[in-house]
Amino acid sequence: MSNLQTETITMEQMKTNKDNRFLQFWRLFRRKKPAAISFYFILFLFIMMIIGPFVTPYDAAEPNYTSVLETPSASHLFGTDEYGRDILSRIIAGARISLSVSFCAVTLGAIVGSILGLISGFIGKRVDKLIMRTCDVLFAFPELILAIGIVAILGPGLKNVIIAVAFFSVPSFARIVRGATLEVKEMLFVEAEESLGASRLRIMLKHVFPETLPTIIVYYTMNVGTAILAAASLSFLGLGAEPSSPDWGAMLSVSRDYIGTAFHIVFFPGLIIFLTVLAFNLLGDGLREMLDPKMKD
Amino acid sequence: MWQYIVKRLVSLIPLLLVVSFIVFMFIHIIPGDPARLLAGKDATAEEVEMARASLGLDKPLYEQYFVYLKDTLTGDMGYSVKSGAAVSELIGDRILPTLGLTFLSIIWALVVGILIGVISAVFRNKWLDHLGMFIAVSGISLPNFWVGLVLIQLFSVQLGIFPTGGAEGWKSYIMPSFALGAGIMAMIARFTRSSLVESMKQDYIRMGRAKGLGSRQIIFGHGLKNSLIPVVTVAGLQFGFLLGGSVVVETVFSFPGLGTLLIDSIQFRDYPVVQAEILLFAFQFIVVNMIIDIAYSYLNPKIRYE
Question: N or C: which end of chain B has fewer CB within 10 A?
């Protein structure tokens, strides 16, 4: 009976400990002002992604030829474009496209790269060599050139932009997760598990993988920024989103023709790309300082 | 030292072969008949067959690859579908402006980046440090095409100081190299700061202070000298970023370099040019990284003897 009681207490304690750890993390995180502000900004963008189409002041796609290229005013905060469409509404509508493309690409790259890195680091030997040499070959191509090459093969379009951006993030995830795995593999608890007779797959998934998660989270956050820039660059070059769509990069691409006559249509889409990428980079920096053991000095 | 260089060069051969094979396969991976792709979209059936025969596309793949390799090594990269000119000539015309642009970008990025990094490290956790690092993280986050467009608006349209594009005269290089170098400058600044902060913790710095050396001599004479080696390596690794960025920045400024040639060729489906350019970009990147590696081992003997 008494045994059972202590056991229940420990379970409860463990639960509160877990809650406390999260709260502790949150309290520490909030003290990092740039990262915390970035987090709220990203949260805001996500809300816009979901409810955006319902709250935009104007229809993002409907042309209005009575208000073409209007400068920012009370009725159009960011002004209007060459078809008289409200730029603020288009930026809000475009959040859906630009963010989902980048998230899909990085998630895809992170999953494939992490699995490869985990396998490479944990199994080692020939498998490790094969995976790492393949990564070396991919690293031989400058990132954006690799992406441009892939889009040249697959043809322009957002789906292919996702594939291209995911492709170039695979080797860097693989390399980073491999490094983290190699470190974890040497730890005492892995040896203990092995001597207890746990299978390699179990050790890899249940013990090694969770330990590499902080590294993956930090790297993931920082990569979203890179992916937004890369996807916007491809759309800007005319290899990504349709020119008529409210994708941020595509908006900038079209706006080039109006430089000198209507600067606001160049300025605002670029500003939102900059702020979004900045937010992801600052959030990544903050998370790295908190999660990366090497940075904790 | 020579032994190391030879070893590094030899280890490069397999990588170059694999990369060239991937680029060779480019034309075969694209959906459609390679002969038609290489002959151009408006080619007649006869022209397609001629292309097939003259390019050896009817031969087995490995044979085609050897021919491709031999041709590339002798500078024969095929003919442009769009203009009919030799690809090597087209690239030859464009390579100098792009090299000039990337060179200018990396120079200013190194100078300003190191300066900001040193100031941040010296005034660590003071407002100058925060300002320097804010500039750095902003630089990494800026879309270079947007920087280019804003520069055109400010300095060409409003102030009329610099031309909006082209590559005539030194003035036309200023804005593109600023837009292209901003990201690298930021990365160099961050890296210089952390590297210098790390070296300032070393014993020889403490020793210098104990001997009564002035802080200027400690920072520039001892600290910075030792922290610059990794900074140069990072600059080399970021060279790929520069090559990719040049495509975008050249497009903004209608700069007659390799980048605009690549984008024009993709849009025109001028595949021989696209293929040659991707190979060239990859080779440039590999060669620069190798030079950095060798320079690094020269500066840091520890690496050489491993």
Answer: C
